[in-house]
Amino acid sequence: MTPPVLTFFNNKGGVGKTSLIYHLAWMYASLRKRVVIVDIDPQANLTAAFLTEDKIEEIWNNKTQGSTIYQCVKPLTSVGDIADPVLQNIATDLYLLPGDVNLSGYEDALSNEWPHSMGDNNLYRPMRILSSFWQVMQKAASKVQADIILVDIGPNLGAINRSVLVATDYVVIPLGADLFSLQGLKNLGPTLKSWKSLWQKRLDNWKNNAEHQAYPEFQLPQGKMQPIGYLCQQHSVRLDRPVQAYDKWVNRIPNVYRESVLGEECDETITQEHDPYCLATIKHYRSLIPMAQEHRKPIFNLTSADGAIGSHAQAAQAAKKDFKDLAEKIAAQIGMAL
Length: 338
Known about the structure:
Blueprint: E1 5-8, H1 17-30, E2 35-39, H2 45-50, H3 53-62, H4 69-73, E3 88-91, E4 94-97, H5 107-116, H6 124-130, H7 132-144, E5 148-152, H8 159-166, E6 170-175, H9 179-207, H10 211-214, E7 226-233, H11 243-250, H12 253-262, E8 278-282, H13 288-295, H14 311-334
Parallel strand pairs: 1-5, 1-6, 2-4, 2-5, 6-7, 7-8
Antiparallel strand pairs: 3-4
Helix pairs in contact: 1-14, 5-6, 9-12
């Protein structure tokens, strides 16, 4: 049985997605779940949160096979095959497959093979390339017997993200309380449904093809892409905006999520506070964020030695409870025992 792949995705950027994954990864590791983090955002911000610039430069310059997500899939662009991932052991039960700015060059290969995967013959290579991120994730998880795979991707609807979502079991959607996040949510729901349907057609095409019999060991992701809920940033992250403006957008999120993502009818009585699909409201944590970044640790692991004293110490402990609650809620949604 393969570990669940959980992807955090919104095609609107600036919603705190990378920080969220970073803290959840540390929280699951503290709860003794073995975590593999895969950074498939070409900006590699999540990698920068875990590793120093010197370490990242060393990895990128050496270009060792399997050292980044790009170095794992790069051989497929010529005559090679997927390279074994080389994981960075961040802490006990916490492993990272680093991102790579060169990954954006893989977009063309994925775009080209998408139509080829619906042909009548020579299907193995297109399906191998389109499922390459899933293949890498499973290799990485198998190396360390991971319990869960957390994935970060960029804010767009391109071919890279389509292949990541194909590899995904569960999707969490981070949101801001603004027009742009709401519009992104409206775009995201139909896109997920379309990608899921199109991938199912490719799976059926593969299963009904004679080539399928020639590769009995070749496994493919099922493309579940099951949305399990959304998260919303607290309004205080934008102190220049009045609370009224925040409320205007936040009150529309529950029904846009139901309509666009789940295909359900509106419920005008529901508020975000009582919405079962709202996994959490992400607090701003103000000055704790730069403090945590400086010491390269999650907010809830800050100590007095790091400068977290008085109200900062109290806020760090409150953050620990918040992220533990969120980790437990997500675990329950994906059927992972803690």
